[in-house]
TrEMBL record:
Biological source species: Buddleja alternifolia
Name of protein: Pectate lyase
Residue ranges of domain Pectate lyase in the record: 154-351
Cofactor note as given: Binds 1 Ca(2+) ion. Required for its activity.
UniProt EC number: 4.2.2.2
InterPro entries recorded: AmbAllergen, Pec_lyase, Pectin_lyas_fold, Pectin_lyase_fold/virulence, PEL
Lineage start: Eukaryota, Viridiplantae, Streptophyta, Embryophyta, Tracheophyta
Family according to the record: Belongs to the polysaccharide lyase 1 family.
Swiss-Prot/TrEMBL cofactor(s): Ca(2+)
Record's signal peptide: none
UniProt entry keywords in alphabetical sequence: Calcium, Lyase, Membrane, Metal-binding, Signal, Transmembrane, Transmembrane helix
Amino acid sequence: MLPSHLPHLSLPADSSLSLMAAFSEQSNISRSVKSFNLGLFSYCPVSRVLPLTVNASISRRRQLLYSPTLNPQAQCLTGNPIDDCWRCDPNWAANRQRLADCAIGFGQAALGGKGGRFYVVTDSSDRDTVNPIPGTLRHAVIQDEPLWIIFQSSMLIKLKHELIFNSYKTIDGRGANVHITGNGCITLQYISNVIIHNVHVYNCLPSGNTNIRSTPTHVGHRGQSDGDGISIFSSRNIWIDHCALSHCTDGLVDAIMGSTAITISNSYFTHHDEVMLLGHNDNHLPDSGMQVTIAFNHFGEGLVQRMPRCRRGYIHVVNNDFTEWKMYAIGGSASPTINSQGNRYSAPIDPNAKEVTKRVDTNEGEWSDWNWRTDGDIMVNGAFFVPSGQGLSMQYAKASSIDPKSAAIIDQLTMNAGVLGGPRDNSVSISYGGGATTGATSNGGGGSTGGGDGDGDFLGMIFGSGAAPTQSSPTTIIFLSLLIILILYITTNHDGLLSLPSLLL
């Protein structure tokens, strides 16, 4: 039996299914629950048990999460090579780590935690940055070994300070609704092989001047952070996919100081000024070798500029949907090579903001030989792209990472951009709180985030508290409900004067 006091469980990738089946058979499940097939977003292709009384809002979200199983063709063969790689398999959750084989572009070699153990985050708190509590996300990301990090339930993780990663980590938010916010947010510094998939990142604030642990054996003093959503600093082989990013103090995603081999895909960007910075400054020569793929993203409501803003390097902007900017979409300085292919650019109403491109603080005599091209892009509402350079094939080869699809099917390619299984952006209010995980889940497992909506709680049945669930029988629930209705009826309509026997006659 799994010790009931453990807040999390790490499993070898090749043994997770057999262990799950064993624990499921040993669980003491009350007779008042019924089987419920989780479908596409279950952790493994076995039945899960749920109470008969299921909150309507939870049911609706689960319908959104699991509906692709009922009609797999609706989510498959869209032309989006990442999604087509894994979403067509109704049993994808039995082989979560196959996601690492679905990357495209310059970041396609990012292994993340492939081949490593599963780490289940059971605690949404972030109280101690020097000695993280086992079961928290902070404790998971600093480990030295490769880890595939998943979540026991939906949770809001409010960070105390920067969340500093170690190499070979995957954050896999599929099957739960995971929000990361607070101070510092995500920092990838001097590391490699990280995958961040299917999480919300927003409202990130500057923080620092404190000690933070970055590995099991190293604690360092951190100065003031910028308040980026995801900061990539001297790192490589990074893949960010199906995330929703908004409302941060500095950039939503910044990649600087020689970072390279990066793909940012299928994500939903909204409500922000300076969206994405690629390159530290005009004079930082190591950024000359930077290669970044930006593919199948939706740049949406409330964006102003930098989608991206590039310094040096080779940037492939391919099959994205740009539906709003207030200043410009793509900017740059210090002669970056920008290869724009198969995108849709929809200009704002402002007649002074129709241009997609902006050469920052540079005169035309200097930028006229920069290699910026538009190839197969669709321009909407007066949008226009100003190309430059001689179109040198060698330069564009270094800025080409995948074959573009036709911009005519951009709606199809980006229809699932953002977090899967619910609202794909961060414009909705968050109904569940952060802090320490407390209480029992609806299926008898411990460690559910307080106030959580329950999505993904099936993990709690296996990895949570070993205590037997306590469930009232359906007959008892019905009787108590009728009794309450009768009491309310007597009180409101008969001033409490009718006796119960006379009412039943």
